[in-house]
Amino acid sequence: xxxxxxxxxxxxxxxAGRIDLVNVKLGSTITAGQxxxxxxxxxxxxxxxxANAEFYSAQQTYESKVKLQAMQxxxxxxxxxxxxLAQKAKAQIQLYQAQLRQCxxxxxxxxxxxxxxxxxYASVNIGQPLIEIVNDRKLKVQxxxxxxxxxxxxxxxPFSLKIDETGNAYNAKVQRINGRVDAVSxxxxxxxxxxxxxxxxxxxxxxxxxxxxxxx
Length: 216
Prior knowledge:
The structure is a single chain. This protein has helices spanning 42-70, 76-101; strands spanning 2-5, 8-12, 17-22, 29-30, 35-39, 104-106, 111-116, 123-124, 129-134, 139-146, 158-163, 169-177, 187-195, 207-210. The protein is an alpha+beta fold. The protein folds into three domains: 2-40 and 103-134, CATH 2.40.50.100; 42-101, Helix hairpin bin (Helix Hairpins); 139-215, Elongation Factor Tu (Ef-tu), domain 3, CATH 2.40.30. Strand 11 (158-163) and strand 12 (169-177) form a beta hairpin. The longest helix has 29 residues, at 42-70.
């Protein structure tokens, strides 16, 4: 029997750049939405300011030509071209805003840092793994049981765990049952959800599961 996290993720860089801030350490407890890491994005910030200025200028030109068109002082094609330039400038703003969002890596869920690969001031490439996190608040157990148990084993069935590393006992219930029996071992894989308090229980721990119904 193995304890595993129901959620785990490797957070990778979405951009090439230099890391300015690493806001967590190995084993740190994190909350959903917490800033974990920031890149140096002075260049992207400057691009966004430039795009905002270009959009403002293009929008002013467009609005001016709309007024002139009302007085029949400018051709329709000129108004359309001005509108297109304003839309293009607006799209540039959205592009640089998207790039700036990639400058900050936030936690997608609450949990703990299990591996820290990022270092402050280091330069990284797109797709490079930076931080591994797990949700240690919702844990599951993975185990194989005799396939003969399928005559009574059901989703929701309670069972208990005893963890080798700590000697502590926990309650759990069957959450999933595999759709295939291992013909060689005549066993079937199941997953269980740990219910109640999970204090001192960590992903990777192992132990023994006991099913009251198996003793009947």
